[in-house]
Specification:
Elements: E1 11-20, E2 23-32, E3 45-47, E4 52-54, E5 58-60, E6 63-66, E7 69-72, E8 78-87, E9 101-106, E10 122-126, E11 131-137, E12 143-149, E13 159-169, E14 172-179, E15 182-185, E16 189-190, E17 209-211, E18 223-231, E19 252-256, E20 263-265, E21 273-274, E22 276-277
């Protein structure tokens, strides 16, 4: 394959797809000083559950500087990720096209596998079967996940989604998925034998939090996101009534309100944190 570009660019994204009788394979690779174009300012926000909501993509930092010390805002071993979500397209099963809608992607940028979250990742997505899947994967490709069907979730309906995890709870892995404050799934699946999920060993590494798509820009969520809060420990002991407006406390790593900007509140008082429009890669 030879490609000649006769214009000057700082960088390009090269995407190649090969199709054969056995199926298709695609890869993406940055060339030069490639930077993804951010969404237009007019596309960033829309009316939310409380004030405005994120209507495009955003990437949040992995750490914040407290004095001379970088503090990690999202931890691998345990935590809670929650937000109010509202589809901009109906959520329906699409087994033929295999369309995935990614809400949260915390992991390395993989241009060779732009749709995969099976390595060193924490991710929330809707798969082709209209299942909301919260998945954590290790550097050894081991994984744990919880999921719930959301087929028929209509455009314009706000729902609160909370995912919490404790990767080693006395030798077991505990993960829970709440929708509108009700425990929807705590059955952990993955690569293991038996009915009880063993603990998952995952390196605790600072990786940016991508919202609204994969960090490669693939698999857009088609979802408004409001009141996104990331906590460094599990929050909920059972069913709860989710408030429209969440509040930060000592366990809050990030709290984005998306009321016209990408600033974040945190339990780290006096520290300014902000996301950037667009995707990480």
């Amino acid at each position: 394959l030879f490609l000649e570009v006769r214009r000057a660019y700082e960088g390009l994204m090269l995407e190649v797809e090969v199709t054969a009788d056995e199926g298709s394979w695609s890869t993406r690779a940055p060339v030069g000083q490639y930077r993804p174009a951010p969404p237009d300012e007019a596309e960033m926000f829309a009316p939310g559950i409380d004030g405005q909501a994120l209507a495009a993509t955003m990437v949040a930092p992995a750490t914040a500087q407290v004095g001379d010390t970088p503090v990690q805002l999202v931890r691998s071993a345990q935590g809670t990720i929650e937000a109010w979500l509202c589809p901009t397209q109906d959520v329906v099963a699409d087994r033929e096209r295999g369309v995935q809608r990614t809400v949260i992607d915390i992991g390395p940028i993989r241009y060779d596998h732009p749709f995969l979250t099976n390595w060193r990742s924490i991710a929330l997505h809707i798969n082709q079967y209209a299942q909301l899947v919260f998945q954590i994967t290790s550097e050894r490709y081991d994984s744990r996940a919880v999921q719930a069907r959301v087929d028929g979730w209509p455009t314009g309906q706000w729902r609160h989604v909370a995912c919490q995890w404790l990767l080693d709870d006395g030798g077991c892995c505990r993960m829970q998925l709440f929708i509108d404050g009700r425990l929807t799934s705590d059955r952990v699946t993955g690569k293991f034998e038996g009915d009880v999920a063993p603990a998952l060993e995952k390196q605790d590494e600072p990786l940016p939090l991508q919202v609204g798509a994969m960090n490669t820009g693939a698999a857009p969520a088609h979802m408004l996101v409001d009141e996104l809060r990331v906590s460094v420990q599990p929050r909920y002991q059972g069913d709860f009534e989710p408030p429209r407006r969440l509040e930060p406390d000592a366990h809050t790593g990030l709290l984005f309100r998306f009321d016209g900007d990408l600033s974040a509140e945190s339990g780290l008082h006096g520290v300014a944190i902000a996301g950037q429009a667009g995707t990480a890669g």
